[in-house]
Automatic annotation (TrEMBL):
<dbReference type="Pfam" id="PF01168">
    <property type="entry name" value="Ala_racemase_N"/>
</dbReference>
<dbReference type="InterPro" id="IPR011079">
    <property type="entry name" value="Ala_racemase_C"/>
</dbReference>
<dbReference type="InterPro" id="IPR029066">
    <property type="entry name" value="PLP-binding_barrel"/>
</dbReference>
<feature type="binding site">
    <location>
        <position position="314"/>
    </location>
    <ligand>
        <name>substrate</name>
    </ligand>
</feature>
<dbReference type="InterPro" id="IPR000821">
    <property type="entry name" value="Ala_racemase"/>
</dbReference>
<feature type="active site" description="Proton acceptor; specific for L-alanine">
    <location>
        <position position="266"/>
    </location>
</feature>
<dbReference type="InterPro" id="IPR001608">
    <property type="entry name" value="Ala_racemase_N"/>
</dbReference>
<protein>
    <recommendedName>
        <fullName>Alanine racemase</fullName>
        <ecNumber>5.1.1.1</ecNumber>
    </recommendedName>
</protein>
<dbReference type="GO" id="GO:0030632">
    <property type="term" value="P:D-alanine biosynthetic process"/>
</dbReference>
<comment type="pathway">
    <text>Amino-acid biosynthesis; D-alanine biosynthesis; D-alanine from L-alanine: step 1/1.</text>
</comment>
<feature type="binding site">
    <location>
        <position position="131"/>
    </location>
    <ligand>
        <name>substrate</name>
    </ligand>
</feature>
<dbReference type="GO" id="GO:0030170">
    <property type="term" value="F:pyridoxal phosphate binding"/>
</dbReference>
<feature type="modified residue" description="N6-(pyridoxal phosphate)lysine">
    <location>
        <position position="35"/>
    </location>
</feature>
<keyword id="KW-0413">Isomerase</keyword>
<dbReference type="Pfam" id="PF00842">
    <property type="entry name" value="Ala_racemase_C"/>
</dbReference>
<dbReference type="GO" id="GO:0005829">
    <property type="term" value="C:cytosol"/>
</dbReference>
<keyword id="KW-0663">Pyridoxal phosphate</keyword>
Length: 375
């Protein structure tokens, strides 16, 4: 028997969650962002569920774009960071990939690219995040260069928010970037894409100059599609109506009875204050569970909330069974997501306890964990 640990990807939740994006986005079209192997869920595994709602797929790796075309996806497919070297443009021509243009060198490469099929590009503005993109004052010149190229068929406009999930300097987090984007693009034609999950959930209906709104023409739905919440703990999955896209479940392998003063695991990081019953679970950091999750991180045992105890080791962790006399070897432990009994432990809660975000936990699911698709 393989180790009793398994992740489940919930197809119906993926479809439902993208539907939430579609509703919030008003009339805008929805990219399902599937970078990082669909946030750890598996591109091929998620595809049928996501294509029911998605108008397009957005990724970063060219190999991911190839995988989507191999699934026979013929619709819009966007490379969010554009190409990494000139010959990547050959793949863009061959597979009809739309690609971001975030810097001058990418325009140079495109100008030298031989193609019969002009490309659709998304010109990216650095409106304040200072990661990728043209500064607002350089944006128009870049746009002009692109529209003059025979290799370019259409130029769309794009930017990315750094603080759509929060406030910044007392204002909602996007005001300064929105102002920069609008000022530099107000009179430019082309479709717009501004909103990630946080902006789609929190700001999509907000009007922009020129009769459009923050949703623009395309929203880029990443984390929300997988049931993760971009602005946890201010809001939770229930608030936004999102369902877990993935559950990670393991079983209790052994049970120990502790007396006051007994300790648990490496470094004796937990000391029993009195008699306790604990379970050792077949999940550790080599499965992608965060090693920094402290004592008290929530888990579900047979669908009932409990907590971890002591340090997470490579292949095991300990949970408190003191209040669960029925639990024992073989009991199901849900590390995040939905238990078989239906109870939900949001991934955001676990991530928060461990000092990280749901994104990181999903993406870090280890290859050794078998994954099952639940229709
Ligand atoms: C990852 C990414 C997104 C999606 O972000 P979420 O917060 O997961 O919705 C959107 N746009 C760009 C450019 C990205 O890199």
């Amino acid at each position: 028997m393989p180790r009793p640990i398994e992740a489940t990807v919930h197809a119906s939740a993926l479809t439902h969650n993208l539907g939430v994006a579609r509703e919030r986005a008003g009339g805008a079209r929805v990219w399902a962002v599937v970078k990082a192997n669909a946030y750890g869920h598996g591109i091929e595994r998620c595809f049928e569920a996501q294509r029911q709602v998605a108008d397009g797929f957005a990724c970063i790796d060219l190999a991911e774009a190839e995988r989507l075309r191999a699934l026979d996806w013929r619709g819009p497919l966007l490379l969010l960071e554009g190409v990494f070297e000139p010959r990547d443009l050959e793949l863009c021509s061959r597979l009809h990939l739309w690609h971001a243009i975030h810097a001058e060198h990418q325009i140079d490469w495109l100008a030298a690219h031989k193609t019969n099929l002009p490309h659709r590009v998304f010109l990216k503005m650095n409106s304040g995040m200072n990661r990728l993109g043209f500064a607002p004052q350089a944006f128009r010149a870049a746009w002009q260069r692109l529209v003059n190229l025979p290799q370019v068929e259409d130029v769309s406009l794009m930017t990315h928010f750094s603080d759509a999930d929060a406030t910044r300097l007392g204002a909602d987090g996007i005001a300064h970037q929105l102002a920069a984007f609008e000022a530099a693009t107000a009179d430019l034609p082309g479709e717009r894409s501004l909103a990630n999950s946080a902006a789609t959930l929190r700001h999509a209906q907000r009007p922009l100059a020129g009769g459009v709104n923050v949703a623009g023409d395309w929203v880029r739905a990443g984390i929300l599609g997988y049931g993760g919440v971009p602005d946890y703990p201010e809001h939770d999955a229930a608030h936004w109506g999102l369902q877990p896209g993935m559950s990670l479940r393991a079983q209790v392998l052994g049970v120990q009875q502790l007396q006051a003063g007994d300790t648990v695991g490496y470094g004796s990081a937990f000391t029993a204050p009195g008699p306790m019953r604990i379970g050792t679970v077949a999940c550790g950091y080599a499965d992608g569970y965060p090693r920094h999750a402290p004592t008290g991180t929530p888990v579900l045992v047979d669908g009932v909330r409990s907590r971890t105890l002591g340090r997470v080791s490579m292949d095991m962790l300990a949970v408190d069974l003191s209040a669960l006399p029925e639990a024992g070897v073989g009991s199901e432990v849900t590390l995040w997501g939905r238990s078989r009994q239906g109870a939900v432990l949001p991934i955001d809660e676990v991530a928060h306890a461990a000092g990280t975000i749901g994104y990181e936990l999903m993406c870090a699911l280890a290859p050794r964990v078998p994954v099952r698709l639940d229709e």
